[in-house]
Amino acid sequence: QVQLVESGGGLVQPGGSLRLSCAASGNIFSINAMGWYRQALGKERELVAGITSGGSTNYADSVKGRFTISRDNAKNTVYLQMNSLKPEDTAVYYCQAADVRTSWAAWPSDYWGQGTQVTVSS
C-alpha cells in the first residue's frame, strides 16, 4: 500500500508564511501528478496547486503569485510554500498523489493524506 504523510501546518498571522510537506511511502513504482487541495469549514474541497512528474504546475487563481508548489521525485515528496497568507487561506490542506503505480503493469490509483490544518489569524 501507499501512505501519504503531511506536515508543516499550524497557526500563522496574516502576511506570514508556511511550508507544507507531503511524503509518499510504500510500494511505489511511479507517481504521475501530486497536488494540494484544501477544504474550509462549510465549503467543498478545492484544488490549490498541482505538479506533474515532469514539473508542470498549475495553481488556483486565488493563490497565484503567493504559493509555490515543488516536488522531489527521488523522495516522492511534494512541497507547498505559502507566502503572504490571508485569513481566507484557513482550511485543512490535503495532499494527493495521482495515478500511482506499484509496478509497471499495475492499475493506477489515487491516494490522499490525512490533512493538516492551516489557520491564518491575528
Shape: elongated
Strand content: over 45%
Treating each run of at least 4 consecutive H or I residues as one helix, how many helices?
Answer: 0
Mean pLDDT: 96
Largest sheet: 7 strands, mixed
Annotation, overall tally of beta strands: 11
Order of helices and strands: EEEEEEEEEEE
Structure class: mainly beta
- Gyration radius over CA: 14 Å
Which bin fits the share of residues in helices?
under 10%
Between the first and last Cα atoms, what is the distance in angstroms? 40 Å
What are the segments in which pLDDT stays under 50 over at least 5 consecutive residues?
Answer: none
List strands and helices in order, with pairings.
Elements lengths: L1 E6 L2 E3 L5 E9 L3 E10 L6 E7 L4 E3 L7 E6 L4 E6 L8 E11 L7 E4 L3 E5 L2
Parallel strand pairs: 2-11
Antiparallel strand pairs: 1-3, 3-8, 4-5, 4-9, 5-6, 7-8, 9-10, 9-11
Keyword list:
122 residues; mainly beta; seven-stranded mixed β-sheet; four-stranded antiparallel β-sheet; 0% helix; 57% strand
Would you write up a description of this structure?
With 122 residues, the protein is mostly beta strands. 0% of the residues lie in helices and 57% in strands. It has no helices and 11 strands. Strands 2, 4, 5, 6, 9, 10 and 11 form a 7-stranded mixed β-sheet that branches. A 4-stranded antiparallel β-sheet has the order 1-3-8-7, with no helix packed on it. A hairpin with a 4-residue loop joins strand 5 (46-52) and strand 6 (57-59).
